Amino acid sequence: MVLFVAFIALLAWVFGEASGYGGSFIGIALIISGTISFTSYWWSDKAVLAMTGAQPADQKVHFDFYTTAENMAIAAGLPKPKLYVIDDPAPNAFATGRDPEHAVVVATTGILECLDRTELEGVIAHELSHIKNFDIRLMAIVTVLVGTVAFVADLFMRNLWWGGRRNNDRSSGSGIFLIVGIILAILSPIVATLIKLAISRKREYLADASGANLTRNPDALADALEKIASNPHMLRNASSSTAHLFIENPFKKKNAGQLFASLFNTHPPLEERIRILRAM
User: Fold this and answer.
1) Annotated binding residue 267
2) Full residue range of the structural domain in which residue 252 is found
3) Residue 271, annotated as binding a ligand
């Protein structure tokens, strides 16, 4: 994480030198990105719930969801999270929130209908593991950092396109900074996104293992993942900005086995996750 922040600072410095604004470019970028980060930290969960169309769960209607979440939260030593439901036949679930005291677990009506109670325990344990491991905070911060990289790169390119350079220094050193700045502006958002996706895949493996340890029944989660994979429905409100949150990729991509495509996947291969769980 420290290296990620240092990378952003380096980008801002290079872009400032290349555009002729020097340290002032860094200041502007940090002020704007800091405001975005503050807003995202405190209100990102509400934005995600609104984007996915999630509504508060009804204890009478979603009795198994409520009681399973309560039991698993007690076993994990966590406060019971707020529970929300998405009216969608695609089976999926996710956790969000900035910390265990402000966490939310969301499940689709599809997953609540197709899983038995044991399998639902496996899924809820997986999501509670994300909460206990502070994955929801980590991914929120990483997402903000990736967005900051994209913002800084876009600000630099717009400044070059519309405003030109601040000074007329034509020295070779200045020209080198300009060339390096343009290259970084093109490549840095891609690199930052790849880092974010790699972190997301690694945290999914950890949540699988932690959830299996919580229930002492890794086959429950493996069975649930198999049912999720075999279901043909795709989440209606799925978006690239929220896909990494779900227990399984809501877009149901089939090319995860290809090396290049797998770099851009939000989740590790489902077959590999199931294989590891079966081997526990």
Assistant:
1) no
2) 2-279
3) no
